[in-house]
Amino acid sequence: MKKTAMIMVVLLLQGGASGLAADKVHFEDSDFSGDGWGEFIEVPDTGGWVVRRRNLGGLVQGWVQEVTLDTDGGLFMSAGKGSFVSLFRSQGQIYALRTRDGERSLINQIAVDGRIGLRLGFDGAFFIYDYSAGNDWIRLAKSDIIGVVSYTGGISSPNRASGMSDYRIVELGSLKGVPFGYTDTPKIPGTPWVVHDPFRPQPRQINPGSVTPVNNPGIPPSDAIVLFDGTNLDAWEDGKGNEPKWKLGDGYFECQKKSGTIRTKEKFGSVQLHIEWASPAEVKGSSQGRGNSGVFLAGLYEVQVQDNYDNLTYPDGQAGSLYGYRPPRVNACRPPGEWQAYDIIFEMPEFDGGQVVRKAKITVLHNGVVVQHGEEIPGILGHKKTRPYREHGPGHIQLQDHGNPVRYRNIWVRELQPTQ
Ligand code: MG
Prior knowledge:
Bound molecules: magnesium ion
Strand content: 35-45%
Distance between the termini: 57 Å
Low-confidence stretches: 1-38, 56-61, 146-150, 157-168, 171-178
Mean pLDDT: 78
Radius of gyration: 25 Å
CATH class of the largest domain: Mainly Beta
Helix content: under 10%
Number of helices: 1
CATH superfamily of the largest domain: Exo-inulinase, domain 1
Shape: elongated
Largest sheet: 8 strands, antiparallel
């Protein structure tokens, strides 16, 4: 932490800090008596600058630090290990920086003059940088950082304006975090986390590029069983074996509210599955309520389908997760409405006398990016629970109706036969 503070000292020039009105003030050092700083730790050896920090444990969302500056100065929040964000003014420019593992990158900068406000927010997966040059707050930048949920923050403020507070921790309506996750669920075997643990580190959001193209579906391999070519739902049925009620569109089909899960008529064991999906272009809901569906292998193991583009949820329940067990390695979501692809390689578990002797294994590429690699599935996955294996054979590939109009297209499967 000391290293972080020292870096900040270099970044933060002469600072005069005071408070601005905020949505909800949780802590304010109004009279600068020093009492309010009880929870704050003076950072030593900062070359004469005042730098204080406060350790905030647990899941923090929508909490920010805020300062008003007449001259130069700024804020930082650190996630430790040389990773932190900083927002400061220096010589007429506001700089938004992100430093990850000691490597610093400029996210954005803007020229300003006069009195300004700066604030940093944290929503569990992203740091958010705002500034104000009048009454309105303006989003300057947003950066992914690292999936930790506690941070240390501080300011440099050697020249506090008289009668004004130096430091505020506020909760902003615009950043209000949606509660998600569970802490009263069973522990996931082989991990320190409980099922849907909100404190589990969030996968980094990345841009998946165009390893899998967006615009036109590709052509399946010649030995694939085509489950949907854009024209009909002949390979599909509802959960009772009847005609599926999902809507056929132009080259895709779409989940209809309360239409129920659909499944392939045929049952499959170990497969390579290609499936493309799109969450609704119109963003509605948050966390698990946004663009939720799912692909069930052998009818039992869900690879989550969800709009997690700037949408935070419990890590073991986001797009590309093995639902209730393992988060994706990264969050490779494309924006809402864009076509996305899963390429899934699933190997069936093997049983002997009712006991599992080889667990199911799965690899998932999301938009061409590896998000699961040869993962052994510890048991039957599900919502808020862990269940041991029960003997089963091949099963229907199922698509979940979670009440959101998620679309699918270009679905094909290749059965994995043992090699000779
Ligand atoms: Mg789902």
